[in-house]
């Protein structure tokens, strides 16, 4: 019986190794940063980056479970998931508060919940606004020639978020609107995993944001997306951040 289990374990390991060798893609090197910057700027123009920059507040739900209200102007964010409600002051970490089942958390669990909320916000907000971040500090851009002869935009992050060092290869349509990207990220063991960027919405402030991403069998949907110049415009309680200012 032990031999049978051993054979099964070896077979599974072999399948994993074969799958890795077949599916894993090496990160392309890319070239011509100047041309890459031109392509990146075309993408930002197509997505009305100036409208995003002037958007003060955005609210949305990610994948049906994480709810956000992000006051960009004042660098405050509310993250709700399960029984948790966390308020983060992105300028002054210690002002952040956490609530669980409606009760404020003040013990050692406070920093656990704030840290978890920060990680959730970094991940989910990236899926919301990644195209707008291609000129962030510490980001490099290069051109990669695809098999069909078109040009894709390779974006690499030296810093920022919770996983610095990640890279993304953006595929754009003829209007410079993203259709998909491939990822080389620490959280995934295989390089070159693809995800779509689709169902683009022109929001109330004019910013253009994708509401659906297909990642293999998963649908990473953005729902209840609202943008505005203040909290009232996105129809949330205007006093939600009073406790952490």
Helix percent reads 25-40%
- Describe the global form: globular
Number of strands: 16
In DSSP terms (H or I, runs of 4 or more residues), the helix count works out at: 4
Number of domains: 1
Low-pLDDT segments: 1-22
Rg over CA atoms: 21 Å
Strand arrangement within the widest β-sheet reads 6-5-4-3-2-1-16
Short description:
The chain has helices spanning 2-23, 33-46, 49-53, 109-129, and strands spanning 57-62, 66-71, 76-81, 84-89, 97-100, 103-105, 139-145, 151-157, 167-172, 178-184, 193-196, 198-202, 208-212, 214-215, 218-219, 222-228.
Describe what you observe in this structure.
The structure is a single chain. The protein has 245 residues and is α+β, with helices and mostly antiparallel strands. The protein has one domain (26-79, 123-244). It is built from four helices and 16 strands. The chain has helices spanning 2-23, 33-46, 49-53, 109-129, and strands spanning 57-62, 66-71, 76-81, 84-89, 97-100, 103-105, 139-145, 151-157, 167-172, 178-184, 193-196, 198-202, 208-212, 214-215, 218-219, 222-228. The strands form four sheets. The chain has a seven-stranded antiparallel β-sheet, with helices on one face. The chain has a five-stranded antiparallel β-sheet with strand order 7-8-9-10-11, covered by helices on one side. A two-stranded antiparallel ribbon has the order 12-13. Residues 1-22 have low confidence and may be disordered.
């Amino acid at each position: 019986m032990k031999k049978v289990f051993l054979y099964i374990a070896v077979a599974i390991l072999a399948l994993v190794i074969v799958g890795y060798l077949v599916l894993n893609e090496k990160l392309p090197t890319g070239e011509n940063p100047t041309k890459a910057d031109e392509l990146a700027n075309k993408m930002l123009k197509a997505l009305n980056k100036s409208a995003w920059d002037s958007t003060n507040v955005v609210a949305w739900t990610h994948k049906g479970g994480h709810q956000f209200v992000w006051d960009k102007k004042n660098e405050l964010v509310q993250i709700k998931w399960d029984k948790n409600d966390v308020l983060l002051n992105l300028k002054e970490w210690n002002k952040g508060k956490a609530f669980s089942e409606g009760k404020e958390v003040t013990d050692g669990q406070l920093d656990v919940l704030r840290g978890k909320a920060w990680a959730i916000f970094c991940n989910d907000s990236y899926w919301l606004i990644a195209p707008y971040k291609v000129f962030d500090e510490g980001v490099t851009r290069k051109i990669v020639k695809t098999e069909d002869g078109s040009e894709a935009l390779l974006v690499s992050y030296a810093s920022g978020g919770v996983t610095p060092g990640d890279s993304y290869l953006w595929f754009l349509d003829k209007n410079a609107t993203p259709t998909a990207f491939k990822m080389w990220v620490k959280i995934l063991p295989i390089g070159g995993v693809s995800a779509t960027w689709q169902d683009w919405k022109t929001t109330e402030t004019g910013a253009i944001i994708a509401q659906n991403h297909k990642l293999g069998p998963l649908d990473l949907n953005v729902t209840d997306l609202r943008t505005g110049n203040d909290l009232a415009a996105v129809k949330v309680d205007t006093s939600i951040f009073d406790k952490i200012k």
